[in-house]
Amino acid sequence: MARRLSLAGLSTDPRVAPAPAPFPWWRSAVVYQVYLRSFADSNGDGIGDLAGLRARLPYLAWLGVDALWINPHYPSGGADGGYDVVDYRAVDPDYGDVADLEALVDDARRVGLRVVLDVVPNHTSDQHRWFQAALADPDCPEAGRYHFAPPSEEPPNNWQSLFGGPAWSRTPDGRWYLHLFAPEQPDLNWRDPEVAADFEQTLRFWLDRGVSGFRVDVAYGLYKDAALRDNPGFYAPTLFGHGPEQAMTWNQPEVHDVWRRWRSICDEYPDTMLVGEVCLADLDQVALYSRPDEMHQALSFRLLKSAWDPASFAAAISSALDAFGTVGAPVSWVLGNHDKERQVTRFGGGALGRARARAAALLMLALPGSAYLYAGEELGLPQAAVADEAKRDPIFLRSGGARAGRDGCRIPMPWNATDGVGFSPDGAAEPWLPIPADWGRYAVSRQAGRNGSTLQLYRRALALRKAHPAFATGTATVTTNGDVLTVRCAGEEETVRCVVNMGAETALVSCSGTVLLSSSRRVHSAGGTVALPPNSAVWLVED
Ligand code: NOJ
Ligand code: CA
């Protein structure tokens, strides 16, 4: 049953188009990624939930983001942080129920925030009713919705799981089945029309509840080589950037028709959007997923992989602007997410890493396009050390500990500096991942009113980004001069710049303009010269 929004003055039916927007919101939006399990726990079971997130919406409105993307909220087998979905049209009881999600969407809209869900079409959970039916009866229709192969000595081909080991496991009756991620995540066979039909129902189910779109997991997957031929090469396991050595598993031409179909569904619901996770090495191939009749955007992971040097960042920015510009899509910038080591740690840790992460944030938020923030980066959270016994990530578990895994960037949010950091109501609950003893020092309550805190830096940057549209919507040029990287964005009304010093010495930058914001309080400007200390960034508006 479709649920109607009930905001005064707005249409009560999400399918009735409002007056056309001159510039779609998603092209320049700042989207805040909520790792639901770690955001806020309302009922004291140590697990973040929808009611907890709902209660924290004022914080997100205060911060100044435009939309939320919520990591998977579905009933799940729990093998891969919710990316093993048991039922696509329900809410995991850990997180609440469908009414909670509807209430979240309503409340969010009231404070000016849109809600984007995660959808996982490449694989289901092994506990999904289709896979369970297929295990019980090899000849049932559901078996055709996965990739099964008859019993044999060797797996059907040389494909490898991204989480380590072969991509094929055996059923109890000796058949093989394909899983490009964990064995608990069997890959769907998109050549079976029932699969496509079911996902279309799922999209409508949530769109009818007023959500503003979907982040599409593994959008470069879904279809596999029709004959399941061997890949030409093996690869070092990574979540980013597959190339020709993986030609048979990813990026099959047929997948683009799925996005055309999904786009046409979204087009029935005004102001909704699709943003794809497309981990391909060739950025021109990634951009094809955001052609005008496919997904609205494809996440650009280049900044996630950039080393702290101007050439690396400049190449990341220019290549993304070029590739997405060719298809007319905005770049969707990402500096951190739930799969990657936190920026502060990645950029060197401690005070150095913090200074660089702050400068990098100003750089990303100055770029035209949309920006994706990962919960906790506005607090400058570092990667947490997690004891092996507490780790949950299949990457760690399946590699026998050889790969650290992603738990350290998924620790619960510190809201205040009391015991338990305010994640659960009374602080007494055991959090689902252990919270480091010093986590309180990063708490929202500590940073919110403190000038110069990382939280205040993000908040001011988001406000200035809105006040100076040249940042998010201007035409950017990127230059480097020694250790200094400059992005200049020419807008209709004004021209703005972000200048970053990535070197070890103070850099003197000449500029006739006004300083809007700087990542370090040691940035000084006088007489047309800005002194930028090492690892700092400044925003300027040109005279
Ligand atoms: C990408 C997601 O971001 C990651 O967390 C997940 O493990 C894989 N897709 C598999 O769904
Ligand atoms: Ca809870």
Description:
24% of the residues lie in helices and 16% in strands. The protein is of the alpha/beta class and 543 residues long. The strands form 4 sheets. It has an 8-stranded parallel barrel. Helix 6 links the parallel strand 7 and strand 8. Helix 5 packs parallel to helix 6. The protein is globular. The N terminus is likely disordered.
Return the average pLDDT rounded to an integer. Answer: 94
Described by strand count, sense and barrel closure, the largest sheet is: 8 strands, parallel, barrel
- Stretches where pLDDT is under 50 for at least 5 consecutive residues are 1-12
Number of strands: 19
What is the terminal separation in angstroms? 56 Å
Q: Briefly note the structural class of the backbone.
A: alpha/beta
Q: Give the radius of gyration.
A: 23 Å
Total count of helical runs of at least 4 residues: 14
Proportion of beta-strand residues: 15-25%
Described by the principal axes of the CA atoms, the overall outline is globular
What spatial order of strands do you see in the largest sheet?
1-2-3-7-8-9-10-11
Describe this structure in a few short sentences.
This protein has 543 residues and is α/β, with parallel strands linked by helices. It is 24% helix and 16% strand.
